[in-house]
Amino acid sequence: MKTSLALPDLPYDKNALAPLITGETFDYHYGKHHAAYVHNLGNLVKDTPYCEMPLEAIIRAGYDRGDAGLFNNAAQHWNHSFFWHCLSPDGGKAPTGKIGTYIKRDFGSFEAFREAFSTAAVKLFGSGWAWLVENAAGRLEILPMKDAHTPLTENKKPLLTLDVWEHAYYIDYRNARPKFVESFWEIVNWDFANDNLK
């Protein structure tokens, strides 16, 4: 997925996932949090060589150089842009296609994968992301990552993610992260995961 330095449009109406994720949550999570990362990144790269670079390259440069401000804002912009596509009003159900085959191959069953992914998301201490990735050997892994960290810096291909920063769920679920994680399975976008495997 290639992402520009601008705030992308949501791939659905902000009310399309209600009541699991409400329009009010999108107003804050997308309209304020994600937009702030984009705004901050724009200020950081203005009048620098970074402003001509792809977002993915900015993420790697910030990470490699230990520039926390650049890395955090670029990575959070990319992570959120990716995350919106991991959700769909037509999502949920069991995975089909290549992603379904690979999940069964690498986790034994969809049920085993779902339990392992949910556990990783719920137990991640503090803020961060739960990722489903494909590693260099072509196998699937669950990768819990703190704060803004992303599989892009681990040379692993992101397939799906779930944002477990508190701002992702506090309006709709208060502090009940497990309920938010449970709702993810009703709107997860398996078509997007399959596209990422191509």
TrEMBL record:
Keywords: Iron, Metal-binding, Oxidoreductase. The lineage of its organism: Bacteria, Pseudomonadati, Bacteroidota, Flavobacteriia, Flavobacteriales. InterPro entries: Mn/Fe_SOD, Mn/Fe_SOD_BS, Mn/Fe_SOD_C, Mn/Fe_SOD_N, Mn/Fe_SOD_N_sf, SOD_C_sf. Residues 6-88 form the Manganese/iron superoxide dismutase N-terminal domain. This is Superoxide dismutase. One of its GO terms (molecular function) is metal ion binding. Belongs to the iron/manganese superoxide dismutase family. Residues 95-195 form the Manganese/iron superoxide dismutase C-terminal domain. It comes from Sinomicrobium oceani. Destroys radicals which are normally produced within the cells and which are toxic to biological systems.
